[in-house]
Automatic annotation (TrEMBL):
The keyword Oxidoreductase applies. Keywords: Cholesterol biosynthesis, Cholesterol metabolism, Cytoplasm, DNA-binding, Endoplasmic reticulum, Lipid biosynthesis, Lipid metabolism, Membrane, Nucleus, Oxidoreductase, Phosphoprotein, Receptor, Steroid biosynthesis, Steroid metabolism, Sterol biosynthesis, Sterol metabolism, Transmembrane, Transmembrane helix. It comes from the Eukaryota. GO terms for cellular component: endoplasmic reticulum membrane; nuclear inner membrane. Residues 65-75 have a biased composition (Low complexity). GO terms for molecular function: Delta14-sterol reductase activity; DNA binding. It comes from Anhinga anhinga. It catalyses: 4,4-dimethyl-8,14-cholestadien-3beta-ol + NADPH + H(+) = 4,4-dimethyl-5alpha-cholest-8-en-3beta-ol + NADP(+); 4,4-dimethyl-5alpha-cholesta-8,24-dien-3beta-ol + NADP(+) = 4,4-dimethyl-5alpha-cholesta-8,14,24-trien-3beta-ol + NADPH + H(+); 5alpha-cholest-8,14-dien-3beta-ol + NADPH + H(+) = 5alpha-cholest-8-en-3beta-ol + NADP(+). The gene is Lbr. It is a multi-pass membrane protein. Residues 58-109 are annotated as: Disordered. Residues 4-62 form the Tudor domain. Gene3D superfamilies: 1.20.120.1630, 2.30.30.140. This is Delta(14)-sterol reductase LBR. PROSITE patterns: STEROL_REDUCT_1, STEROL_REDUCT_2.
């Protein structure tokens, strides 16, 4: 059994796979079975290498000293040969012309070699991970992964060309000038084509999320089934999980053309508000092509106009509880519309340029790309479909549904005032939506906008999941009223305020630091500098846990469910779902941040050990 040569923690020189370049690394571990060393580069990259690819730093120093000691004698001998005085003048002129040609050829070789090295450096930079979820509209960093093997493949392609150049230089078999120019042009075109192929390959997602093709295919059917199951369960007199499955309604009762027409009217009304020339226009983050898209920030104005329209309808005795009476039909209409919209989005994405495709939805697999979204920013003129659906129809529709449930409770139970539980649920969730619309600009830095394409996942989530699942507590209270005392209501209100304070102050602290780290008002914040030029906050909320905004989200979600009491677990589905969602997003953030920040992220994790829950997780 071979003995181990290098110890853990030893600094050595390691060869980069597929190249002849050696870099300084640190040995972290050794596998006795595979006989591979795990080494860490300066930028945090870890690779498993054979012992033959690792050398001691002393060997490089010895080589350097030997080459420097032998070079003077070589130079002197070459000079003595060229300075021979016994040659005739004619031969001397010939030798001088030959030496000039030799110098020209040598200069050209250096230029060609420099061009090849430049392309290698470019491709190595392409392989480095770049930044790229957080919660909607909270502005967390996002990142994409690059395909490291593309660098190795390019270097292997260019290496034979460099070897041929060295042989031609050694034996003087240089082509004529005209042929050389042609070869130069051809080689440059070949290099550019290779770089384009690498960029195209690097845009493909390295790992598939959500269980890959099988997982996304399952989710396309599982998500609508979950929504319909929850609504059917809440509609029962006893919404216990033991009463499974709930009684299924007739298929013809799930669809009504009038309901679908009302849904389309709502969707296009919000589209009209979006197109109004009110609110400021801002630029989003730069795309892969360097271009920045324009966005109209008028979500809060659209909310005010929607409130005015609803007030007008109520003034003219319009029965808003119509939403409650046809709630299931509205959910079916929204699901059908989101499916049609997803199909349209995928078909149009097949004709867009490569640089406009989403990094996470460009896998080449139809089902996966259809689910995650193939095109990054689908637009009809200046109308951005993804940005519009993110906050307008679904999020504002959530508030309208809650209001309809409040009116339905008053009508069904003959109440002159809504119950205290219903008031708390409506108030808490109204605050959440208004906060999102007021801070609309922050959504431009989230993964939903910068990384995820617009496909079935976001279309269904924005138009169906948000309005019909997030309003589950208000829908539950209509058929299952729960009485709570004022002291309990006060305690729940304090809990919601604590969650909202953590959520908003943490996001504001991060956004202000990102805009202007040198702001004197932020002088009390300490941070760890990173190679990207950004800093990782280690004081304030971000020094308490790594994702304090997630902690605030979960506390608020619990406060929304507590007014429903403890008779059934169904109103707490949102809390359970929210915890699972944020843990998934947190794990994805951890992976991306480790790739993006390298050693700086490891230092940050040592400084801030807890992810979401202090002293727990």
């Amino acid at each position: 059994m071979p003995s181990r040569r290098f110890a853990d923690g030893e600094v050595v020189m390691a060869r980069w796979p597929g190249s002849v370049l050696y870099y300084e690394v640190q040995v972290t571990s050794y596998d006795d079975v595979s006989h591979l060393y795990t080494v860490k580069y300066i930028d945090g990259t870890e690779l498993a290498l054979k012992e033959s690819d690792i050398r001691s730093p002393l060997s490089f120093k010895q080589r350097k000293s030997q080459s420097s000691s032998s070079s003077p004698s070589r130079r002197s001998s070459s000079k003595s040969r060229f300075r021979s005085p016994r040659r005739p003048s004619k031969s001397r002129r010939r030798s001088s012309s030959q030496s000039r040609e030799h110098k020209d050829d040598k200069k050209k070789t250096i230029q060609e070699t420099s061009l090849a090295v430049l392309v290698l450096v470019l491709c190595l930079s392409l392989c480095k991970p770049s930044e790229n979820n957080t919660r909607r509209y909270n502005g967390e960093p996002d990142s994409t992964e690059r395909n490291d093997t593309s660098c190795i493949s390019l270097e292997q392609k260019l290496k034979p060309d460099l070897e041929i150049e060295r042989v031609l230089e050694q034996y003087g078999l240089r082509p004529r000038k005209e042929e050389k120019k042609k070869e130069e042009i051809y080689s440059e075109k070949k290099i550019l084509e290779t770089v384009k192929k690498i960029e195209k390959a690097s845009s493909k997602p390295k790992e598939l999320e959500f269980g890959g093709r099988i997982g996304t295919f399952t989710l396309i059917f599982l998500l609508p089934a979950t929504v319909f199951y929850l609504l059917l369960m809440v509609k029962q007199d006893d919404p216990s999980l033991m009463n499974f499955p709930p009684p299924l309604p007739k298929l013809e009762s799930l669809w009504e053309a009038r309901v679908f027409g009302v849904f389309l009217l709502w969707f296009f009304l919000q589209a009209l508000f979006y197109l109004l020339p009110i609110g400021k226009a801002v630029e989003g983050l730069p795309l892969s092509s360097g271009r920045k898209l324009q966005y109209r920030i008028n979500g809060f104005y659209a909310f005010i106009l929607t409130a005015a329209a609803l007030g007008t309808l109520l003034f003219f005795q319009f029965e808003l509880h119509y939403l409650y009476d046809h709630f299931m039909q509205f959910a079916v209409s929204a699901a059908a519309f989101s499916m049609v919209l997803s199909i349209y989005l995928y078909i149009r994405s097949l004709k867009v340029p490569e640089e406009e495709l989403a990094p996470g939805g460009n896998s080449g697999y139809f089902i996966y790309d259809f689910f995650t979204g193939h095109e990054l920013n689908p637009r009809i003129g200046s109308f951005d479909l993804k940005y519009f659906c993110e906050l307008r129809p679904g999020l504002i529709g959530w508030v309208v549904i809650n209001l309809a449930m409040l009116l339905a409770e008053m009508k069904i139970h003959n109440q002159s005032m809504p119950s205290l539980s219903m008031i708390l649920v409506n108030s808490f969730q109204l605050l959440y939506v208004v906060d999102a619309l007021w801070n609309e600009e922050a959504i431009l830095t989230t993964m939903d906008i910068t990384h995820d394409g617009f496909g079935f996942m976001l279309a269904f989530g924005d138009l169906v999941w948000v309005p019909f699942v997030y309003s589950l507590q208000a829908f539950y209270l209509v058929g299952h009223p729960t009485a709570i005392s004022w002291p309990v209501a006060a305690a729940i209100t304090i809990l919601n305020c604590i969650g909202y304070y953590i959520f908003r102050s943490a996001n504001s602290q991060k956004n202000n630091f990102r805009r202007n780290p040198s702001d004197p008002k932020l002088a009390y914040l300490k941070f760890i500098p990173t190679a990207t030029g950004k800093g990782l906050l280690v004081t304030g909320w971000w020094g308490f846990v790594r994702h304090p905004n997630y902690l605030g989200d979960i506390i608020m979600a619990l406060a929304w469910s507590l007014p429903c009491g403890f008779n059934h677990i169904l109103p707490y589905f949102y809390v359970i779902y929210f915890i699972c969602l944020l843990v998934h997003r947190e794990a994805r953030d951890e992976h991306h941040c480790k790739q993006k920040y390298g050693l700086a992220w490891e230092k940050y994790c040592q400084r801030v050990p807890y992810r979401i829950f202090p002293y727990i997780y």
